[in-house]
Amino acid sequence: MRLRDMILAAMFAAIVAALGVFPPITLPFTPVPITAQTFGVMLAGAVLGARLGGISLSIFVLLVAIGAPILSGGRGGIPTLIGPSGGYILSWPIAALVIGFFVDRFRDKLKLWNMILFNFIGGILVVYLGGISYLAFVSDMSWWVAANSALIYIPGDAVKAVLSGMLALQLHKTAPVAKLHKEQRAA
């Protein structure tokens, strides 16, 4: 891995951590808080592509696992990952990888609508599938009850998907990111 790739992966892990500064919004009927960090997950996949996006969020999850308090509300450590919100967090590298896969595949045909679609597929469907399934398992509730408790997150995540798609598309039009992806294709 080249130094620039390591820097980009670390930078996006740091962006997701920085989004954890925003306090979590807790709701009385679900143990999983609303955070701004999924915006960073979507952005990492949409800007960095599959490989670096997945690596970036894997770094983030490893930092959480070793106890770095970089989740919203200053949370971190193994207890957080095995708790009710663990499935959402553990799905973030996969989500970035999926978003990045689609972005890499359609690199020359990127439009706002498909950037938003890619964020919905990876950043919402993949994250919800992992998070809901894990929540149902650790909380000993049915999958459908866990899924119903996640409905409250959809409007905010939809806004994050649109904003991330808009920002990522703009970044793809700038020289440094466009140059990075041309070099990745050539390698």
UniProtKB/TrEMBL annotation:
Q: Which Pfam families match?
A: BioY (PF02632)
TM ranges: 6-27, 39-66, 86-103, 115-137
Q: Mostly located where? A: membrane
Protein name in UniProt: Biotin transporter
In terms of Gene3D superfamilies, this protein maps to:
1.10.1760.20
Q: Where does the UniProt annotation place the signal sequence?
A: none
Give the UniProt subcellular location, in the record's own words: Cell membrane
The major lineage groups are:
Bacteria, Bacillati, Bacillota, Bacilli, Bacillales
Classify the protein's membrane topology as the record does: Multi-pass membrane protein
Q: Which InterPro entries match?
A: BioY
Transport keyword on record: yes
Q: Which UniProt keywords apply?
A: Cell membrane, Membrane, Transmembrane, Transmembrane helix, Transport
Q: Which organism is it from?
A: Rossellomorea pakistanensis
